[in-house]
Amino acid sequence: MKERKPKNIFVQGPVATSFIAESIQKHSTQTSIGGHSIFLGQVRADLINDKKVAAIEYTTYEEMALEKMHAIREDIFSKYELTCMHVYHSLGKVVAGEISLFVFTSSPHRKAAIHACEETVERLKAELPVWGKELFDDESYQWKENSQTL
Amino acid sequence: MKERKPKNIFVQGPVATSFIAESIQKHSTQTSIGGHSIFLGQVRADLINDKKVAAIEYTTYEEMALEKMHAIREDIFSKYELTCMHVYHSLGKVVAGEISLFVFTSSPHRKAAIHACEETVERLKAELPVWGKELFDDESYQWKENSQTL
Amino acid sequence: MPIRIMIFGQLTDILNSHELTLTDIADTDALVSELNKRYPSLAGARYMMAVNKQTVTANTILKEDSVVALLPPFSGG
Amino acid sequence: MPIRIMIFGQLTDILNSHELTLTDIADTDALVSELNKRYPSLAGARYMMAVNKQTVTANTILKEDSVVALLPPFSGG
Cβ(B129)–Cβ(B49) under 8 Å? Predict the structure, then answer.
């Protein structure tokens, strides 16, 4: 049941809300599930030195990222009673207001789903070799850095 | 900006995945948001004494539930840096596999969204006067009881 | 003085009703006694009482327009 | 012995490239020295090094088919 081969998590461009809805809908046949926890990362139009972030362009070291994600997935499944986990991360350009990260965990019990989702988000932010380039509306850019504390 | 009048959280029947997608989509104009946290409660087809739960029928003491939910919302907004919070709970019959609870928090920062969502779920499970009647496939039923620990 | 009593969840099975009106009930202790007399199996049931949407633990005086609710353990979500 | 070096994130601005091939590099310490000589501003940059997708902290021997990656702080999500 719990097939956990390394699988691709990367999608080109933003994660569509229709895709999120379909992912949720697919779980209606899994009637042992009692709770789903979802985290969505949305690109913020931050103001940095009077310039507004218009989009983030994501790149990755894909082979290494997929190996890391596989290890994270294995750890999370061994720690929590999960029915399933799905992770999608954007590559390429994602405009402010669009979704760049979709983490989705499901479990018979809500606490397992919620805590597994949170831990997966924290770990992938810290461990996946992914880089965001913040593109300003004047076509200049800066490289994003993730905060570990917020 | 943060209008927090008591508002209705109850919907008749299950929460549709298309409604969830629309709710997410609406936030794409709120470009100060960096993270959304979503919890979905799904009706489990539990096996109880060899009988399978086919659906849960929810009832509430609505006036009291809305007052309680308003108080929870105020507490959560004062504790976390939230951009917005949306809560929807089903009333009436929700078939196994369908969604009966939708809690949705958004914040500039992921931790606030995640922790606010978890706390809201825990509090509403403990504090809202809502009752679930588990309907078995042989038309008998039993009254559900929430666990505080799982 | 009529007191309106709202009944929820599994208690509706015991009282066979969603709402009752009782008269000459001074306070919540008196209400509990009266209900237990009428519905003996209620004495063993777990529930909280709310008066005008506020849960009460101590004995509470009931007034003309008090609305009492009998609330078994919650199971929403 | 050619060593393939993959470059990511802000380091691509310093090295002006996504990939380099260097020869006669025995280990990661030697690689760092050579890179700092060619790209002086790299010396002040924060990054980790991965050899064959495993991050390394101690000096590591490089072999014929070693793939080295220069990884600045991650910022996904």
Answer: no
- The shortest C-alpha distance from A57 to chain D (Å) reads 10
For residue A34, give every residue at least 6 positions away whose Cβ sits within 8 Å of its Cβ, in sequence order, or none.
A107, A108, A109, A110, B41, B42, B44
Instruction: Give the strand order in the sheet containing C19-23.
Output: C19-23, C2-7, C67-71, C48-51, C54-56
Residue B95 Cα distances to A84, B54, B76, B147, D65, angstroms: 21, 6, 30, 20, 57
Of all residues in chain A, the one with the smallest CA distance to D12 is: A143
Q: Is B80 buried (19+), middle (13-18) or exposed (0-12) by CB count in 10 A? A: buried
The minimal CB distance from A41 to the residues B29, B34, B42 is found for B34
Question: 3-class SS at B30?
Answer: coil
Structure tokens at C33: 């006694």
- Taking only Cα atoms into account, the Rg of chain B, rounded to an integer number of angstroms, comes to 16
List B58's β-bridge partners, or say none: B92, B132
Task: Please give the backbone phi and psi of residue C29, each rounded to the nearest 5 degrees, phi first.
Answer: -60, -45
To the nearest whole Å, the CA of B78 is away from the closest chain A CA by 17
Q: How far is A31 from chain D (nearest CA, A)?
A: 30
Q: Check B143 against C10: CB less than 8 A apart.
A: yes
Write the CA distances from B1 to B5, B83, D39, integer angstroms: 12, 9, 50
Q: Which of residues 5-64 of A touch D (CB under 8 A)?
A: 41, 58-61, 63-64
Please give the structure tokens belonging to residue B4: 């927090």
Q: Which residues neighbour B42 within 8 Å (Cβ) at sequence distance 6 or greater?
A: A27, A28, A33, A34, A35, A36, A106, B97, B98, B99, B100
Distance between alpha carbon C46 and the CA centroid of its chain, in Å? 12
In angstroms, the CA B122 to CA B120 distance is 6
The pTM is what? 0.94
The CA distance from B53 to B140, in Å, is: 10
Amino acid sitting at position A76: I
Which residues on chain B are in Cβ contact (under 8 Å) with C11?
A: none
* pLDDT one digit per residue (tens) for chain B, 150 residues: 455 567 899 999 999 999 999 999 999 999 999 999 999 999 999 999 899 999 999 999 999 999 999 999 999 999 999 999 999 999 999 999 999 999 999 999 999 999 999 999 999 999 999 999 999 999 899 999 876 544
Q: Is B99 on the interface with A (CB under 8 A)?
A: yes
Name the 3-class secondary structure at A124. Answer: helix
**What ipTM describes this predicted complex?**
0.94
Other Cβ atoms less than 10 A from the Cβ of B59: the count is 17
